[in-house]
Every structure is written in structure tokens, then in C-alpha cells.
Design a protein that fits this description.
about 280 residues, alpha/beta, 11 helices, about 15% strand
């Protein structure tokens, strides 16, 4: 049987790295992984993974990676797992256009450009599966996460529209919506925050008390945090099911807030979210 081809993005650490390792060990799969930094690509290759350099902020990098993938697979791709993303902290009133553009370049624009570059191959094959790693924050908001929330809402909207447009093509579009997962995500978000918010900007913000607390405290993992294996199990179900679900909810908070979003009045949901 011909091996199935999968491309996973954002594999330098966390969810992407774990899923890359696990799927690469699974019989019947040939897995390509990507990372933005050349040093991470070298590290992944040294581990035995087939790694490509791919910067979602760069159209040239995306096209180069797609060309490399197509050459290596003789023009085949079965699964795209769009995992590459980062979180940007900050109150909405403090978000600059530059900050918002950077958040969307990676989490939305680059992800969609990569997807669009691979769709013609999937159409030609008559099959394919696009798996989007979204978030519980793809359908509920949270304070001080407005940029990230907006990017995940946008990803979900594009995915829902694309799923309708691809009906009958043999190509499935699936959303995985994790809640808290143990990874470097929050540490990386703090680093991104400091990239755009210096001490003067923090002091001038009406939200400076929250920012200072966040920078000074070593916050523990929130309740119901799971390991990356929970996302991998959802990914495996999404790529191997004959008829995958449109959405896979991962962690208790995602399940709970999915129902809250559907049935609670907005004012009630706001009261709950403000306490988080």
C-alpha cells in the first residue's frame, strides 16, 4: 500500500513536535515537518525527521517549501496539519496595527496561503484532508488575548467557508479546538508581549497592573491542562476516520464552553469569562 503523505507545520516544539514524532512512527505514513528557524530544522533532521524550513510570514518561504515537498513526494499530499501559530498578549486598546498585522500574518494569512498552495494537488488527486489546529479561543473570547482570539476566529471562519466550498471534492476541512495544553505556548506568548511592550508602554497602559503581575508571576498551568498527546489523539482520529468530525473538542474547558456558547445568554457568558 502506498504510504500516505502528511505535512505538519510549527514543529519546533510543543504540540507540533509531539505530533510529528508520533505520526512518523506510525506505519503507513510518510511525515514531513516544518519549522521557521534553520537551527530548528537542523535539530529536527538530526532527530531523524524529514524537516523543511517554512516561515509562514514569507510567501517566498511558503512557495519554496511547497516545491520541495512536491518534488520529494512526486506531487502528492494527503494531510496538511496547520499547527504553526503563536499567541500575542495585550488588551485590545493597546494593540497596534503592526502587532495585529504580525499576529494575522502567521496565524491566518500564512496558514491560508500554504493551504491554498496545496489545494490544487488535493483537487487533482480527488482527496485530501486539511486539519486546522484552532483553540477554545476560536469561539469564545478571553481578556488580554484579543489579537490571538481574533486570529483564531478568522481561521475558523475561513475553515467553515472552505468546508462548504469543497463539498463533493473529496477534501475534508477539520478543526481541532484544544483548551489548555502543557507546552511552551505561554512562555512564547510572554516573549512576544515583551517584543511589543517595553516598560514605558506597560506603565502608560490602563491595564499596567495586569501586565506587571503577568510579567512578575510564574503562573501555574490552568486547571484541566492536558499534554500534547490529547491533541495527537484528536489529530489521528481526524486523519484516519472515513468521515471525520467537523470539529474535535480537546480538554474539559473546550467541551464546557462549547455548550455555554450555544445556550447561555451573552451577559451570563461574559460574567463567567471575566472571572478567568
Amino acid at each position: 500500500m502506498t504510504e500516505k503523505i502528511a505535512l505538519l507545520t510549527g514543529c519546533s516544539s510543543g504540540i507540533g513536535l509531539y505530533c510529528a514524532r508520533m505520526l512518523s512512527q506510525r506505519s503507513g505514513w510518510r511525515v514531513f515537518v516544518s519549522a521557521r528557524q534553520p537551527a530548528d530544522v537542523e535539530r529536527l533532521q538530526a532527530e531523524g525527521l524529514t524537516a523543511l524550513q517554512l516561515d509562514l510570514d514569507s510567501p517566498d518561504s511558503i512557495q519554496h517549501a511547497v516545491s520541495e515537498l512536491m518534488e520529494a513526494t512526486q506531487g502528492r499530499i494527503d494531510v496538511l496539519f496547520n499547527n504553526g501559530a503563536y499567541g500575542q498578549m495585550g488588551a485590545v486598546e493597546d494593540l497596534s496595527r503592526t502587532l495585529l498585522r504580525a499576529q494575522f500574518e502567521t496565524n491566518v494569512f500564512g496558514t491560508q496561503e500554504l493551504t491554498n498552495a496545496l489545494l490544487p494537488t488535493m483537487r487533482r488527486q480527488g482527496h485530501g484532508r486539511i486539519i486546522q489546529n484552532s483553540s477554545v479561543l476560536g469561539f469564545v473570547a478571553m481578556r488580554y488575548r484579543g489579537a490571538y482570539v481574533a486570529s483564531k476566529y478568522a481561521l475558523e471562519a475561513l475553515s467553515d467557508a472552505m468546508r462548504l466550498e469543497l463539498h463533493g471534492s473529496g477534501i475534508d476541512v477539520v478543526l481541532i479546538e484544544p483548551g489548555p495544553i502543557a507546552s511552551e505556548f505561554r512562555n512564547n506568548a510572554n516573549k512576544k508581549f515583551r517584543q511589543y511592550f517595553d516598560d514605558a508602554a506597560i506603565a502608560a497602559s490602563p491595564h499596567h497592573h495586569y501586565y506587571q503581575q503577568r510579567m512578575n508571576d510564574e503562573a501555574p498551568d490552568p486547571p484541566f491542562t492536558l499534554t500534547a498527546d490529547a491533541v495527537y489523539r484528536a489529530l489521528l482520529a481526524a486523519i484516519e476516520a472515513k468521515h471525520p468530525h467537523r470539529r474535535y473538542h480537546v480538554t474539559v474547558p473546550t467541551h464546557v464552553f462549547w455548550w455555554f456558547k450555544r445556550f447561555l445568554p451573552t451577559a451570563w457568558l461574559d460574567n463567567i469569562l471575566r472571572r478567568l
